[in-house]
Give the backbone structure.
Amino acid sequence: MAKRATSFVCQVCGAVHARWQGRCDSCGSWNSISQEETVTGSVPSSQRAGRKGRLIALEALSGSSPDAPRTRFGIEELDRVAGGGLVAGSVLLIGGDPGIGKSTLLIQASAALADAGHRVIYVSGEEAVAQVRLRAERLGLSGSSVELAAETNVEDIVATLAEGRTPALVVIDSIQTMWTDSAESAPGTVTQVRSSAQILIRYAKRAGAAVILVGHVTKDGQIAGPRVVEHMVDAVLSFEGDGAHQFRILRAQKNRFGPTDEIGVFEMTGLGLREVANPSELFLSQGDRGAPGTAVYAGMEGTRPVLVEIQALVVPTSLGTPRRAVVGWDPSRLSMVLAVLEARCGIKLGGHDVHLNVAGGFRITEPAADLAVAAALVSSLSGAALPVDTVHFGEISLTGAVRAVSHSPLRMKEAAKLGFTRAVAPEAKSTGGKSSPRDPAESALALESVASLGDLVAGIAARSPRRAQRPAQAAQEG
Protein backbone atom coordinates (compact mmCIF):
# COMPACT_ATOMS: atom_id res chain seq x y z
CA MET A 1 0.00 0.00 0.00
CA ALA A 2 1.28 3.47 -0.91
CA LYS A 3 2.56 5.69 1.86
CA ARG A 4 2.07 9.43 2.23
CA ALA A 5 5.15 11.48 2.95
CA THR A 6 5.05 15.08 4.15
CA SER A 7 7.60 17.55 2.87
CA PHE A 8 8.02 21.31 3.06
CA VAL A 9 8.60 22.92 -0.35
CA CYS A 10 9.57 26.50 -1.18
CA GLN A 11 7.01 28.00 -3.55
CA VAL A 12 9.66 30.24 -5.18
CA CYS A 13 12.60 27.95 -5.97
CA GLY A 14 11.17 24.48 -5.26
CA ALA A 15 13.72 23.52 -2.61
CA VAL A 16 12.58 20.75 -0.26
CA HIS A 17 13.11 21.12 3.49
CA ALA A 18 12.77 18.53 6.26
CA ARG A 19 10.74 20.93 8.46
CA TRP A 20 9.01 24.25 8.15
CA GLN A 21 11.04 27.42 8.56
CA GLY A 22 10.41 31.08 7.90
CA ARG A 23 13.21 31.64 5.39
CA CYS A 24 14.30 29.41 2.52
CA ASP A 25 18.00 28.53 2.67
CA SER A 26 18.26 28.17 -1.12
CA CYS A 27 16.75 31.40 -2.45
CA GLY A 28 16.41 33.51 0.71
CA SER A 29 12.66 34.10 0.31
CA TRP A 30 10.59 34.68 3.44
CA ASN A 31 7.28 32.91 4.20
CA SER A 32 7.48 30.90 0.97
CA ILE A 33 7.65 27.38 2.44
CA SER A 34 4.43 25.38 2.53
CA GLN A 35 3.56 21.84 3.47
CA GLU A 36 2.88 19.33 0.68
CA GLU A 37 2.00 15.65 0.75
CA THR A 38 3.35 13.18 -1.79
CA VAL A 39 2.57 9.53 -2.39
CA THR A 40 5.50 7.14 -2.31
CA GLY A 41 5.66 3.45 -3.08
CA SER A 42 5.78 0.77 -0.42
CA VAL A 43 9.09 -0.62 -1.72
CA PRO A 44 12.14 1.34 -0.58
CA SER A 45 14.10 3.01 -3.34
CA SER A 46 17.21 1.09 -2.36
CA GLN A 47 15.48 -2.23 -3.16
CA ARG A 48 14.01 -1.22 -6.52
CA ALA A 49 15.61 -2.73 -9.60
CA GLY A 50 17.22 -0.10 -11.80
CA ARG A 51 16.59 -0.03 -15.56
CA LYS A 52 19.56 -0.89 -17.69
CA GLY A 53 20.59 2.07 -19.79
CA ARG A 54 20.71 2.01 -23.58
CA LEU A 55 23.52 3.18 -25.80
CA ILE A 56 23.19 6.62 -27.33
CA ALA A 57 24.80 7.85 -30.55
CA LEU A 58 27.66 10.33 -30.26
CA GLU A 59 28.29 12.86 -33.01
CA ALA A 60 31.21 15.08 -33.90
CA LEU A 61 31.24 18.75 -33.01
CA SER A 62 31.96 19.73 -36.62
CA GLY A 63 29.27 19.55 -39.24
CA SER A 64 26.24 21.49 -40.37
CA SER A 65 22.73 21.35 -38.95
CA PRO A 66 19.63 22.62 -40.75
CA ASP A 67 17.93 25.70 -39.35
CA ALA A 68 14.86 25.08 -37.25
CA PRO A 69 11.71 25.55 -39.37
CA ARG A 70 9.57 28.42 -38.15
CA THR A 71 5.89 29.25 -38.39
CA ARG A 72 5.23 32.99 -38.45
CA PHE A 73 2.34 34.40 -36.45
CA GLY A 74 1.67 37.17 -38.95
CA ILE A 75 2.08 39.72 -36.11
CA GLU A 76 5.40 41.40 -36.84
CA GLU A 77 6.10 42.57 -33.28
CA LEU A 78 5.46 39.10 -31.87
CA ASP A 79 7.54 37.42 -34.59
CA ARG A 80 10.40 39.84 -33.84
CA VAL A 81 10.54 38.90 -30.14
CA ALA A 82 10.11 35.16 -30.84
CA GLY A 83 13.12 35.24 -33.16
CA GLY A 84 11.24 35.03 -36.46
CA GLY A 85 8.31 32.82 -35.55
CA LEU A 86 7.38 29.63 -33.74
CA VAL A 87 9.74 26.64 -33.82
CA ALA A 88 8.03 23.25 -33.98
CA GLY A 89 8.29 21.44 -30.66
CA SER A 90 9.28 24.54 -28.70
CA VAL A 91 7.72 25.64 -25.41
CA LEU A 92 7.31 29.32 -24.52
CA LEU A 93 6.47 30.76 -21.10
CA ILE A 94 4.86 34.21 -21.10
CA GLY A 95 4.21 36.19 -17.92
CA GLY A 96 2.74 39.55 -17.03
CA ASP A 97 0.63 41.42 -14.51
CA PRO A 98 -3.08 40.53 -14.25
CA GLY A 99 -5.11 42.39 -16.87
CA ILE A 100 -2.06 43.46 -18.87
CA GLY A 101 -3.34 41.77 -22.03
CA LYS A 102 -1.72 38.32 -22.13
CA SER A 103 -4.92 36.52 -23.07
CA THR A 104 -5.77 39.22 -25.60
CA LEU A 105 -2.38 38.87 -27.29
CA LEU A 106 -2.56 35.08 -27.37
CA ILE A 107 -6.10 34.94 -28.77
CA GLN A 108 -5.03 37.37 -31.52
CA ALA A 109 -1.95 35.25 -32.27
CA SER A 110 -4.04 32.07 -32.26
CA ALA A 111 -6.56 33.58 -34.65
CA ALA A 112 -3.77 34.76 -36.98
CA LEU A 113 -2.28 31.26 -37.16
CA ALA A 114 -5.70 29.64 -37.60
CA ASP A 115 -6.53 32.00 -40.47
CA ALA A 116 -3.29 30.88 -42.15
CA GLY A 117 -4.55 27.28 -42.22
CA HIS A 118 -2.86 25.89 -39.10
CA ARG A 119 -4.59 23.95 -36.35
CA VAL A 120 -4.60 25.94 -33.09
CA ILE A 121 -5.98 24.78 -29.73
CA TYR A 122 -6.62 27.24 -26.89
CA VAL A 123 -7.04 25.61 -23.45
CA SER A 124 -8.25 27.91 -20.66
CA GLY A 125 -8.00 26.87 -17.04
CA GLU A 126 -9.24 30.18 -15.63
CA GLU A 127 -12.17 31.09 -17.90
CA ALA A 128 -15.08 29.21 -19.38
CA VAL A 129 -15.43 28.72 -23.12
CA ALA A 130 -18.21 31.31 -23.20
CA GLN A 131 -15.91 33.94 -21.70
CA VAL A 132 -13.20 33.26 -24.29
CA ARG A 133 -15.82 33.54 -27.02
CA LEU A 134 -16.95 36.92 -25.68
CA ARG A 135 -13.38 38.21 -25.86
CA ALA A 136 -13.02 36.91 -29.42
CA GLU A 137 -16.27 38.64 -30.43
CA ARG A 138 -15.09 41.92 -28.92
CA LEU A 139 -11.86 41.64 -30.91
CA GLY A 140 -13.68 40.71 -34.11
CA LEU A 141 -12.09 37.24 -34.22
CA SER A 142 -15.14 35.05 -33.72
CA GLY A 143 -14.87 33.75 -37.29
CA SER A 144 -11.44 32.17 -36.77
CA SER A 145 -11.20 28.38 -36.58
CA VAL A 146 -9.53 28.25 -33.16
CA GLU A 147 -10.50 25.18 -31.13
CA LEU A 148 -11.39 26.00 -27.51
CA ALA A 149 -11.47 23.97 -24.31
CA ALA A 150 -11.86 24.67 -20.59
CA GLU A 151 -9.90 22.00 -18.74
CA THR A 152 -7.30 21.79 -15.99
CA ASN A 153 -6.31 18.09 -15.95
CA VAL A 154 -3.08 17.65 -17.90
CA GLU A 155 -3.64 13.98 -18.74
CA ASP A 156 -7.03 14.79 -20.31
CA ILE A 157 -5.51 17.68 -22.25
CA VAL A 158 -2.64 15.59 -23.66
CA ALA A 159 -5.03 12.77 -24.62
CA THR A 160 -7.22 15.26 -26.48
CA LEU A 161 -4.26 16.85 -28.25
CA ALA A 162 -3.11 13.41 -29.48
CA GLU A 163 -6.35 12.96 -31.44
CA GLY A 164 -6.45 14.18 -35.04
CA ARG A 165 -3.93 16.38 -36.80
CA THR A 166 -0.99 17.63 -34.73
CA PRO A 167 -1.68 21.26 -33.80
CA ALA A 168 0.78 23.95 -34.77
CA LEU A 169 0.14 25.86 -31.53
CA VAL A 170 -1.30 24.94 -28.14
CA VAL A 171 -2.01 27.71 -25.62
CA ILE A 172 -2.29 26.79 -21.94
CA ASP A 173 -3.82 29.63 -19.89
CA SER A 174 -2.48 29.30 -17.27
CA ILE A 175 0.06 26.75 -16.00
CA GLN A 176 -0.77 27.57 -12.36
CA THR A 177 -4.28 26.15 -12.79
CA MET A 178 -3.14 22.81 -14.24
CA TRP A 179 -2.92 19.62 -12.18
CA THR A 180 -1.84 16.05 -12.80
CA ASP A 181 -2.81 12.72 -11.26
CA SER A 182 0.83 11.93 -10.58
CA ALA A 183 1.02 14.58 -7.82
CA GLU A 184 -1.23 14.70 -4.78
CA SER A 185 -0.74 18.36 -3.87
CA ALA A 186 -3.19 21.14 -4.70
CA PRO A 187 -3.10 22.98 -8.06
CA GLY A 188 -0.74 25.93 -8.07
CA THR A 189 1.84 24.38 -5.76
CA VAL A 190 5.42 23.82 -6.81
CA THR A 191 4.94 20.08 -7.29
CA GLN A 192 1.85 20.47 -9.49
CA VAL A 193 3.29 23.29 -11.61
CA ARG A 194 6.55 21.45 -12.18
CA SER A 195 4.90 18.11 -12.95
CA SER A 196 2.26 19.64 -15.25
CA ALA A 197 4.86 21.64 -17.15
CA GLN A 198 7.04 18.56 -17.55
CA ILE A 199 4.18 16.55 -19.08
CA LEU A 200 3.29 19.34 -21.52
CA ILE A 201 6.93 19.84 -22.50
CA ARG A 202 7.31 16.11 -23.12
CA TYR A 203 4.25 16.17 -25.36
CA ALA A 204 5.59 19.19 -27.32
CA LYS A 205 8.94 17.52 -27.98
CA ARG A 206 7.37 14.19 -28.95
CA ALA A 207 4.56 15.51 -31.17
CA GLY A 208 6.38 18.55 -32.62
CA ALA A 209 3.69 21.03 -31.53
CA ALA A 210 4.58 24.47 -30.19
CA VAL A 211 3.17 25.13 -26.72
CA ILE A 212 2.73 28.52 -25.03
CA LEU A 213 2.32 28.48 -21.25
CA VAL A 214 0.87 31.51 -19.48
CA GLY A 215 2.35 32.14 -16.03
CA HIS A 216 1.26 34.33 -13.16
CA VAL A 217 3.65 36.92 -11.72
CA THR A 218 4.48 37.88 -8.16
CA LYS A 219 4.28 41.37 -6.68
CA ASP A 220 7.94 41.84 -7.65
CA GLY A 221 7.15 41.21 -11.31
CA GLN A 222 8.81 37.78 -11.40
CA ILE A 223 7.06 34.77 -12.91
CA ALA A 224 5.44 32.81 -10.08
CA GLY A 225 6.19 29.16 -9.48
CA PRO A 226 9.43 27.20 -9.32
CA ARG A 227 12.44 28.55 -11.17
CA VAL A 228 12.99 25.14 -12.70
CA VAL A 229 10.08 25.77 -15.09
CA GLU A 230 11.96 28.71 -16.64
CA HIS A 231 14.94 26.42 -17.18
CA MET A 232 12.79 23.71 -18.77
CA VAL A 233 11.11 25.90 -21.41
CA ASP A 234 12.79 27.20 -24.56
CA ALA A 235 11.81 30.86 -24.22
CA VAL A 236 10.59 33.16 -21.45
CA LEU A 237 8.68 36.28 -22.54
CA SER A 238 7.61 39.13 -20.30
CA PHE A 239 4.59 41.30 -21.13
CA GLU A 240 5.09 44.69 -19.49
CA GLY A 241 3.02 47.84 -19.08
CA ASP A 242 0.45 49.38 -16.78
CA GLY A 243 -3.05 50.72 -16.95
CA ALA A 244 -1.93 54.35 -16.96
CA HIS A 245 -0.37 54.01 -20.43
CA GLN A 246 -1.89 52.60 -23.57
CA PHE A 247 1.18 50.76 -24.81
CA ARG A 248 2.49 47.31 -23.87
CA ILE A 249 6.01 45.94 -24.33
CA LEU A 250 6.80 42.29 -25.00
CA ARG A 251 10.35 41.49 -23.97
CA ALA A 252 12.33 38.24 -24.29
CA GLN A 253 14.21 37.25 -21.15
CA LYS A 254 15.35 33.89 -22.53
CA ASN A 255 15.21 32.47 -26.04
CA ARG A 256 17.02 29.37 -27.29
CA PHE A 257 16.02 30.07 -30.89
CA GLY A 258 16.52 33.83 -31.14
CA PRO A 259 17.92 36.99 -29.53
CA THR A 260 17.01 38.11 -26.02
CA ASP A 261 17.42 41.85 -26.56
CA GLU A 262 14.47 42.44 -28.90
CA ILE A 263 11.21 44.07 -27.85
CA GLY A 264 7.77 44.24 -29.39
CA VAL A 265 5.62 47.32 -28.82
CA PHE A 266 1.82 47.16 -28.84
CA GLU A 267 -0.89 49.70 -28.17
CA MET A 268 -4.01 48.66 -26.28
CA THR A 269 -7.15 49.78 -28.11
CA GLY A 270 -10.83 48.95 -27.97
CA LEU A 271 -10.28 46.31 -30.66
CA GLY A 272 -7.35 44.64 -28.94
CA LEU A 273 -3.61 45.09 -29.26
CA ARG A 274 -2.33 47.08 -32.22
CA GLU A 275 1.26 46.89 -33.44
CA VAL A 276 3.36 50.05 -33.11
CA ALA A 277 5.71 50.20 -36.06
CA ASN A 278 7.53 53.36 -34.86
CA PRO A 279 7.82 53.33 -31.05
CA SER A 280 9.88 56.54 -31.01
CA GLU A 281 6.86 58.66 -31.89
CA LEU A 282 4.95 56.99 -29.05
CA PHE A 283 7.57 57.77 -26.38
CA LEU A 284 8.22 61.39 -27.41
CA SER A 285 5.95 64.04 -25.91
CA GLN A 286 5.75 67.17 -28.03
CA GLY A 287 4.31 69.26 -25.18
CA ASP A 288 7.24 68.71 -22.78
CA ARG A 289 10.09 69.22 -25.22
CA GLY A 290 11.78 72.59 -24.83
CA ALA A 291 11.19 72.80 -21.07
CA PRO A 292 14.13 72.78 -18.62
CA GLY A 293 14.96 69.29 -17.41
CA THR A 294 13.92 67.48 -20.60
CA ALA A 295 16.34 65.57 -22.83
CA VAL A 296 15.78 63.16 -25.72
CA TYR A 297 17.76 59.93 -25.54
CA ALA A 298 18.56 57.86 -28.63
CA GLY A 299 18.67 54.27 -27.41
CA MET A 300 18.76 50.77 -28.79
CA GLU A 301 16.48 47.84 -27.96
CA GLY A 302 18.01 44.88 -29.73
CA THR A 303 18.35 45.85 -33.39
CA ARG A 304 15.72 48.58 -33.13
CA PRO A 305 16.63 52.22 -32.34
CA VAL A 306 14.18 53.94 -29.99
CA LEU A 307 14.02 57.62 -29.06
CA VAL A 308 12.79 58.26 -25.52
CA GLU A 309 12.21 61.45 -23.56
CA ILE A 310 13.93 61.71 -20.18
CA GLN A 311 12.54 64.18 -17.63
CA ALA A 312 14.39 65.41 -14.53
CA LEU A 313 13.31 67.72 -11.73
CA VAL A 314 15.88 69.07 -9.26
CA VAL A 315 14.44 71.13 -6.38
CA PRO A 316 15.78 72.23 -2.96
CA THR A 317 14.93 69.71 -0.28
CA SER A 318 13.17 70.35 3.00
CA LEU A 319 14.26 67.02 4.46
CA GLY A 320 17.40 65.97 6.23
CA THR A 321 18.05 63.33 3.60
CA PRO A 322 17.23 64.39 0.02
CA ARG A 323 14.92 62.17 -2.01
CA ARG A 324 16.01 60.23 -5.07
CA ALA A 325 12.88 59.10 -6.97
CA VAL A 326 13.44 57.17 -10.21
CA VAL A 327 10.88 55.76 -12.65
CA GLY A 328 12.06 53.72 -15.63
CA TRP A 329 15.80 53.70 -14.86
CA ASP A 330 18.26 52.05 -12.49
CA PRO A 331 18.44 54.00 -9.18
CA SER A 332 22.04 52.84 -8.67
CA ARG A 333 22.96 54.30 -12.03
CA LEU A 334 21.41 57.64 -11.05
CA SER A 335 23.45 57.70 -7.83
CA MET A 336 26.61 57.14 -9.85
CA VAL A 337 25.82 60.00 -12.26
CA LEU A 338 25.08 62.34 -9.34
CA ALA A 339 28.38 61.39 -7.69
CA VAL A 340 30.35 62.03 -10.90
CA LEU A 341 28.63 65.41 -11.38
CA GLU A 342 29.64 66.45 -7.86
CA ALA A 343 33.17 65.03 -7.87
CA ARG A 344 34.25 65.93 -11.42
CA CYS A 345 32.11 68.97 -12.27
CA GLY A 346 31.60 70.62 -8.88
CA ILE A 347 27.79 70.47 -9.04
CA LYS A 348 26.47 70.13 -5.49
CA LEU A 349 23.19 68.19 -5.38
CA GLY A 350 23.33 67.07 -1.75
CA GLY A 351 20.73 69.66 -0.76
CA HIS A 352 18.31 68.95 -3.60
CA ASP A 353 15.61 66.39 -4.23
CA VAL A 354 16.09 64.61 -7.57
CA HIS A 355 13.15 63.16 -9.49
CA LEU A 356 13.85 61.28 -12.73
CA ASN A 357 11.21 59.90 -15.08
CA VAL A 358 11.31 58.14 -18.43
CA ALA A 359 8.30 59.44 -20.37
CA GLY A 360 5.63 56.97 -21.36
CA GLY A 361 6.55 54.41 -18.71
CA PHE A 362 9.41 53.00 -20.81
CA ARG A 363 12.16 51.14 -18.94
CA ILE A 364 15.80 51.76 -19.92
CA THR A 365 18.56 49.27 -19.12
CA GLU A 366 21.29 50.62 -21.41
CA PRO A 367 24.25 52.54 -19.91
CA ALA A 368 24.22 54.78 -23.00
CA ALA A 369 21.47 56.82 -21.31
CA ASP A 370 23.98 58.31 -18.83
CA LEU A 371 24.68 61.39 -20.96
CA ALA A 372 21.00 62.15 -21.53
CA VAL A 373 20.25 61.80 -17.81
CA ALA A 374 23.14 64.10 -16.91
CA ALA A 375 21.96 66.67 -19.47
CA ALA A 376 18.43 66.59 -18.05
CA LEU A 377 19.72 67.00 -14.47
CA VAL A 378 21.99 69.95 -15.29
CA SER A 379 19.24 71.53 -17.38
CA SER A 380 16.74 71.34 -14.52
CA LEU A 381 19.23 72.68 -11.97
CA SER A 382 20.37 75.61 -14.12
CA GLY A 383 16.98 76.37 -15.69
CA ALA A 384 18.49 76.19 -19.19
CA ALA A 385 16.28 74.41 -21.71
CA LEU A 386 17.99 72.01 -24.09
CA PRO A 387 17.47 72.47 -27.85
CA VAL A 388 14.38 70.60 -29.04
CA ASP A 389 16.21 69.29 -32.13
CA THR A 390 19.00 67.55 -30.17
CA VAL A 391 19.44 63.95 -29.01
CA HIS A 392 21.92 62.71 -26.39
CA PHE A 393 23.61 59.34 -25.89
CA GLY A 394 26.85 58.20 -24.28
CA GLU A 395 28.19 56.30 -21.28
CA ILE A 396 29.75 58.19 -18.37
CA SER A 397 32.72 56.69 -16.56
CA LEU A 398 33.72 57.37 -12.95
CA THR A 399 36.53 59.63 -14.15
CA GLY A 400 34.03 61.93 -15.86
CA ALA A 401 34.96 60.83 -19.37
CA VAL A 402 32.20 60.09 -21.88
CA ARG A 403 32.69 56.74 -23.58
CA ALA A 404 31.50 55.74 -27.02
CA VAL A 405 28.60 53.30 -27.34
CA SER A 406 27.65 50.79 -29.99
CA HIS A 407 25.33 51.36 -32.97
CA SER A 408 25.85 55.11 -33.10
CA PRO A 409 24.96 55.30 -36.83
CA LEU A 410 21.62 53.57 -36.24
CA ARG A 411 20.77 55.93 -33.38
CA MET A 412 21.57 59.01 -35.46
CA LYS A 413 19.71 57.66 -38.47
CA GLU A 414 16.54 57.16 -36.42
CA ALA A 415 16.87 60.67 -34.98
CA ALA A 416 17.27 62.16 -38.45
CA LYS A 417 14.11 60.40 -39.64
CA LEU A 418 12.14 62.02 -36.82
CA GLY A 419 13.33 65.54 -37.62
CA PHE A 420 16.26 65.98 -35.23
CA THR A 421 19.24 67.90 -36.59
CA ARG A 422 21.88 67.64 -33.84
CA ALA A 423 23.39 64.90 -31.69
CA VAL A 424 25.46 65.32 -28.53
CA ALA A 425 27.55 62.18 -28.18
CA PRO A 426 31.14 60.98 -27.85
CA GLU A 427 33.23 60.63 -30.97
CA ALA A 428 32.98 57.08 -32.27
CA LYS A 429 36.25 55.16 -32.60
CA SER A 430 37.11 54.28 -36.18
CA THR A 431 38.03 50.70 -37.07
CA GLY A 432 41.54 50.10 -38.37
CA GLY A 433 42.32 53.83 -38.48
CA LYS A 434 39.82 54.42 -41.29
CA SER A 435 36.52 56.25 -40.94
CA SER A 436 33.58 54.62 -42.67
CA PRO A 437 31.32 56.77 -44.87
CA ARG A 438 28.25 58.09 -43.08
CA ASP A 439 24.74 57.22 -44.15
CA PRO A 440 22.90 60.10 -45.93
CA ALA A 441 20.19 60.11 -43.24
CA GLU A 442 22.83 60.07 -40.54
CA SER A 443 24.74 62.92 -42.21
CA ALA A 444 21.73 65.18 -41.70
CA LEU A 445 22.69 65.38 -38.01
CA ALA A 446 25.41 67.73 -36.82
CA LEU A 447 27.50 65.77 -34.32
CA GLU A 448 28.69 67.72 -31.29
CA SER A 449 31.27 65.43 -29.74
CA VAL A 450 31.89 65.62 -25.99
CA ALA A 451 34.94 63.99 -24.47
CA SER A 452 34.09 64.61 -20.81
CA LEU A 453 31.13 65.43 -18.66
CA GLY A 454 32.61 68.86 -18.01
CA ASP A 455 32.18 69.75 -21.70
CA LEU A 456 28.48 68.94 -21.49
CA VAL A 457 27.98 70.96 -18.29
CA ALA A 458 29.83 73.96 -19.74
CA GLY A 459 27.70 73.93 -22.88
CA ILE A 460 24.44 73.81 -20.91
CA ALA A 461 25.59 76.45 -18.41
CA ALA A 462 26.36 78.84 -21.29
CA ARG A 463 22.66 78.84 -22.18
CA SER A 464 21.49 79.28 -18.59
CA PRO A 465 19.16 82.30 -18.10
CA ARG A 466 20.68 82.84 -14.66
CA ARG A 467 24.08 83.44 -16.23
CA ALA A 468 22.57 85.86 -18.73
CA GLN A 469 20.97 87.85 -15.90
CA ARG A 470 24.30 88.47 -14.13
CA PRO A 471 25.75 90.96 -16.73
CA ALA A 472 22.43 92.80 -16.81
CA GLN A 473 22.38 93.11 -13.02
CA ALA A 474 25.99 94.30 -13.02
CA ALA A 475 25.19 96.96 -15.64
CA GLN A 476 22.23 98.22 -13.59
CA GLU A 477 24.33 98.41 -10.44
CA GLY A 478 27.06 100.29 -12.35
Q: What stands out?
A: DSSP finds 13 helices and 23 strands in the chain. The chain has a mean pLDDT of 85. The longest strand covers residues 304-316. The CA atoms of residues 298 and 459 lie 19 Å apart.
